[in-house]
Amino acid sequence: MRNDRDGLWPLLAGFRFAFSLWVLCAHTYSFAEHPLPVPSVSGAMPVLCFFAISGFSIHHSIATEPAGYLRRRFWRVYPTNFATVSMALVAYLILGPELKSAVGHAGGEIIPPLTWIGSYLLLQTVLPIMVPLMFPAWSLSIEVAYYALAPLLRRASLRMLLVISALSLLGFCGLHLLKGTVLETLVFQKTVFFHALSIFWAFACGWIAYANAGRVRLMLIFAASAPLAVASYPPFFNIEGWFTIMATLLAWFVVVAILFLQPTLAFRRPVATTLNYLGDLGYPLYLSHYPVMFIVASTLLRDQHARFDGVIYGLCAFVVAIAIYHIVDRPLRRFGRSAPPLVRAPLRNAPAATVSAKSA
Q1: Checking CA distances to 76, which of 13, 38, 326, 331 falls within 20 to 30 Å?
Q2: How far apart are CA 272 and CA 280, in angstroms?
Q3: Would you call 311 exposed, middle or buried from its count of C-beta atoms within 10 A (0-12, 13-18, 19+)?
Q4: What number of other Cβ atoms are within 10 A of residue 230's Cβ?
């Protein structure tokens, strides 16, 4: 049975890919002399939008099929992380000092065994194991923590979720006050525990939207959270003018509006299939592109000044992401399924919906 809301999932998949691409382009500024164009050099807002879409998708996943929820999350997240960390580890062992000194901000850092173990287990939220080589994993470790909390969130009232979200946003607005203190290194460079607490409001936005379609007041409340976050700490979002601030806020406004309004959409099958594929590809692209850039900077472009070096970084990241998706991610994801894909329960407040490939 087909429903007029089927198009929402491909649309969200397309946004996931777009935000992954935004982050990739932003990170070329750390490596390339000719970086790729991007709305803002900061990947902070795309990550917040990731969390909002994730909250929506995770609420759907656990509400419609609670049995095997954690198993599905494991097989959706862990294989790609294992492949990415293994790639980074092999490069680190082979290239050694060349890899560690490829980019100025990497320094000559020695990565101890505990850091590699913690990275495999996605423990950046609770252990001081963050390193530049695997920088994007900070947000994935937070998502994993949120996944674990999902069964508890199902029991929470709307009022409780709103209070927790408000406290989380308040914490985010005050996070920059730790700059210049004895906690700066721990909070901003080694672990993301405080970020997990202070970014929860973004995840809660999507979680709440799933069960409150059409609640305009709630939509406006969460829409207003982004301007507050940006105003509290503009450097975090790399606000450098009206264009960057408008692009940054517009991204959040559009995502919040889609999640709460859940518009009626009808994509043709080829379009929906393409969007779903790109959305799935966005995860390995987001997670693996940073170590790929380190490797490219240490080998292919180490002593080169290519005119299109930003494009080269981007193409290499795509090649690796496609390989991880087809060799690791998609084949192993089937172990998280309890049965072949079926017509599942609808989005909240809708009579029925066929769920296409999606992730958080």
Answers
A1: 38
A2: 12
A3: middle
A4: 20
* Structure tokens belonging to residue 267: 């994509």
- Amino acid (one-letter) located at 360: A
Q: Which of 1-10, 52-61, 99-108, 227-236 has the lowest mean pLDDT?
A: 99-108
| DSSP codes joined into one string, 172-218 | HHHHGGGTTSTTHHIIIII--HHHHHHSHHHHHHHHHHHH-TT-HHH
Q: Any idea which residue has 């382009």 for tokens?
A: 25
- Residue of 238, 341, 332 whose CA lies nearest to 25: 238
Element counts in the chain: helices (H) and strands (E):
16, 0
What pLDDT does residue 1 have?
A: 33
Residue with tokens 């050694």: 96
Task: Give the phi and the psi of residue 53 in degrees, each rounded to 5.
Answer: -65, -40
**33 alpha-carbon distance from chain centroid:** 26
Amino acid letter at 145? Answer: A
The pLDDT-based confidence of 220 (bands split at 50, 70, 90) is: very high
Contacts of 149 (CB under 8 A, 6+ apart): none
Q: Is a pLDDT exceeding 50 seen at residue 260?
A: yes
What is the average pLDDT across 303-307? 74
pLDDT of 99: 75
Radius of gyration for the alpha carbons in the chain, expressed in angstroms and rounded: 20
Distance CA(84)–CA(335), nearest Å, equals 19
* Distance (Å, whole) CA 138 – CA 293: 17
Distance of CA 39 to the CA centre of its chain: 17
**122 in helix, strand or coil?**
coil
Instruction: Give the count of alpha carbons within 13 A of 8, CB side only.
Output: 28
pLDDT at res. 342: 42
> What are phi and psi for residue 26, nearest 5 degrees?
-65, -35
Judge residue 102's burial from the number of C-beta atoms within 10 Å of its C-beta, 0-12 exposed, 13-18 middle, 19 or more buried: buried
**Which residues, other chains included, contact 342 with Cβ-Cβ below 8 Å and sequence gap of 6+?**
none
> Of 35-39, 110-114, 318-322, which gets the smallest average pLDDT?
110-114
CA 8 to chain centre: 19
pLDDT of residue 353: 37
Inter-residue contact 26 to 43 (CB < 8 Å): yes
Residue 22 token pair: 């935004």
